[in-house]
Write a sequence for this structure.
């Protein structure tokens, strides 16, 4: 399996939509994640990330311009014990509640499907980092329509049991810009995770299309101690 340069992979698509990166830092010490949002409409671009406990939440930058909060206002990141949940929608809460009830990541998402935003039917992408007793594994999921058919939901879960230092995976909602937007295809892309949290954050932010990018969140979590460092960048200030 060839691991590709993260900056090159992100910048190769002008509108990947929303994206999740999960992996392990180059020194092997930290679990790494990134979540970004982009937007083409005024409603989608009118957002910022704000801290919410150990996680984050989206918020309208200008409340007077908010027209439809249903698919753009949610908690992308929540923490439950040794789990960090990161998703592109309110399925973050679905996974959180499912884990609390003893369900697995995959079982929790069985009640959800792609977003009801015809004709795009935006995939729901989700990630789960599991850090316990000095061990670390992660999973990624995508729920998407069958090539734009709203009557069938395709469900894929990818589990990574022994993340190697300096390596990770990247998944996003759209293959490219278009109308309708084509859903992501295939397995999460294997990518290289390089540098400190600040270097990693700069890599992802600078790789995103300048016109369409909105916000970015990154986190490095120490696998031994569970302590973490986070960064947030909002284009709207």
């Amino acid at each position: 399996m060839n691991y590709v340069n993260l900056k090159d992979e992100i910048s190769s698509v002008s509108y990947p939509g929303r994206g999740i990166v999960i992996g392990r830092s180059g020194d092997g010490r930290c679990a790494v994640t990134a979540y970004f949002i982009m937007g083409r409409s005024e409603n989608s671009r009118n957002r910022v990330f704000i801290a919410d406990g150990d996680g984050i939440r989206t918020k309208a930058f200008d409340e007077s311009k908010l027209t439809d909060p249903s698919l753009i206002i949610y908690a992308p990141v929540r923490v439950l014990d040794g789990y960090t949940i990161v998703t592109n929608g309110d399925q973050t809460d679905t996974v959180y509640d499912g884990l609390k009830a003893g369900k697995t990541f995959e079982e929790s998402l069985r009640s959800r499907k792609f977003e009801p935003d015809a004709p795009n039917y935006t995939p729901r992408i989700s990630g789960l980092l599991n850090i316990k007793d000095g061990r670390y594994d992660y999973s990624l999921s995508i729920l998407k329509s069958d090539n734009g058919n709203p009557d069938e939901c395709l469900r894929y879960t990818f589990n990574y049991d022994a993340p190697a230092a300096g390596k990770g995976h990247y998944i996003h909602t759209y293959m490219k810009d278009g109308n309708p937007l084509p859903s992501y295809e295939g397995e999460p892309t294997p990518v290289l995770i390089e540098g400190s949290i600040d270097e990693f954050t700069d890599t992802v932010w600078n790789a995103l299309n300048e016109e369409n990018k909105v916000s970015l969140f990154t986190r490095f979590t120490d696998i031994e101690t569970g302590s973490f460092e986070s960064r947030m960048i909002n284009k709207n200030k």
